Amino acid sequence: MNLTFLNPLFLFGLIAGILPILIHRLTQRKAVSRKFSAVRLLLQSQRVTAKPQRLKHFLLLALRILAVLSLVFIMARPGLMSRGFAALPSGGAKVVILDNSLSMGYREERGERYNLAKKAAREALEGFEGQVAIIPTVDVQDRQMTAKKVQWMKPEEALKELESIPLSFGRSDTTSALGLAYYQLKNFKVSKQILIPSDMARGDWEALELSKLGMVSDGDVTFLRIGGQGRDPNFCVKSVSLVEGEAVLGAPARLEVTVLNLSEQSGSTLIQLYLSGTKVDQKSLEFKAGEERKALFELFLEKPGWIDGEVRLSGDRLPSDDLFYFPLKVREKIKVLIVDGDPRTSLKASESYYLANALYPGSLEGSPFMIRVITESEISSLDLRPYDSIFLLNVAKPHPSRLASFLELGRPVFIFLGDRVSLEEYNAFTLLPWRIRESRDVGQKPERIAQIDPGREALRSLSSGADSLKSASFRRYFKIEGNTRSLLTLGNGDPLFVEADIGNSRLFLFTSTADLDWNDLPLKAAYLPLIQGLLKEAVGLAGTSFPAGIRIGEPYKEEVRPVQIRGPEKGPGIYQFSLPSGEVRRGLNPPYEESDLAKMGESELKKKFGPIDVKIIEYREGTLRDLQAGRKELWPFLLAFLMVVLAVEMVLANGVPWAK
Prior knowledge:
The protein has 660 residues and is α/β, with parallel strands linked by helices. It is built from 13 helices and 32 strands. A 9-stranded mixed sheet has the order 17-16-18-19-26-25-24-21-22. It has a 5-stranded parallel sheet with strand order 6-3-7-8-31, sandwiched between helices. β7 (192-198), α6 (202-205) and β8 (220-225) form a beta-alpha-beta unit. α3 (113-125) packs antiparallel against α4 (155-164). The longest helix is centred in the N-terminal third of the chain and has 38 residues, at 39-76. The radius of gyration is 43 Å and the shape is elongated.
């Protein structure tokens, strides 16, 4: 414990202690000479009474001096300070764990918190002559902190190292940082200290698990809190996704941006959409405290290829998370060839009518598909290479040579059966993994779909509700045998819609018709999402136009090193992967946890450290006085002492009132 004074300049007032002495001397009465008889008796009486008076005067003088000195000490505000970071001997060992996570980029009135944290660390190292180690809480690319790379340095070298560590865009790994600190301190026999300048954001310290470290070194741990204890206001983009349509040339799509108000009060923000660096739209939204809202943007893409997208929020005090990056792969319309094996004079009666309308409902311009309908006789002379998929609808013969060459290109084929198909021709086609048996007429009680493959994304939403496939009825179909995956199964166990892999491609077989002759499926609401969903999956459109993004700190799925093509260097942005299958881009964005500026409470943090003594001090710029761990004020005791002194002085000077 150390004795310190908050107002040490008042100690010069101790000089006032001579005032009672001066007053005592100036007010002392001089003896007056008078002649008396019986001088001997008078002198004897004077000697008897002088001694008590002198003692009384001496005590009064001492009490008045104590009163003045007590008043001076009270004004100087003395206190007993416990041993803290600033009180360490100059020859000890200090580890500075520097919080360089994204949340430290918050800009308050005094400046950026990361700069304040560095300033606090510099103040802590002033006058220190021991060994210093600097450990950031977030690994910086190309300079990952490991036990071998953490070095003990002189204070001047540590200051240079401190300035070289940049603010990151990631989330703190507090457990690893403390583990490195304890590992470095375990063999030291001198005084040890760990200083942690941090905003104490919950997203960083909630994941702390000291139990994973095993043995920890002794030594003081002092948190130097940068900023207040409350939750700082902030807006952030939680996600961006395509909710309607696909990124297809000339087809409309809808982009959904989810924004969070991570604040304790309501507010508003401007959401701006940029495509390839050009602003295309903006929306302003009002938010309640803690509210999540969605903004919808209509897209109409007129150029194929990759587009680099950005969502920007109007500026707040944490600018690092105000940008959200996402790539879009805009591709040409899917070219679909439909071979109608039973064309009719009435368009609505044709085999291809309902399928064609399912692929471009409303208008051809708004569909991601471009279709062409031909008759069976035209397939022999037509070049099939420009098409992405083929549908055979009640076609008599499968044209094995043409179909085999198309499947070798890795493109899917859909076959719908009917009364015109030749079973011998289809069963003779060796590439087909199944055999088509006789047709079955179920009579007055039609069959219904009982099982839907839950593993297929295109079918998952069609198993229940108004869009359920199970409401369709089937009066006639073909029984099949073979090794296939059944996507739709009838109530009697017979497969209705099956799929098989043929080399790099896929082959689909629907055992009933594409029109209304044998079933009423084309009249159901589920028919359109069924056909479009399976076709998008088969041609690789589903999910590829909007690749999944990742957060900083998460691993890439790709095993090749990416190239950054947009965003701050080695930070958030859009990254390009060159794969054997072609180019892939992904958006890399800051971790969501760093945008939530809620703070870890002192009691919660101390609970995580268990028996380890942890001190939490709010940093004030320009002084390390508050780095002392604890202060006990002494002025109340001095005030009580002063009151006692004044009471005794009053009694001694005037006598005991009740004794008179």
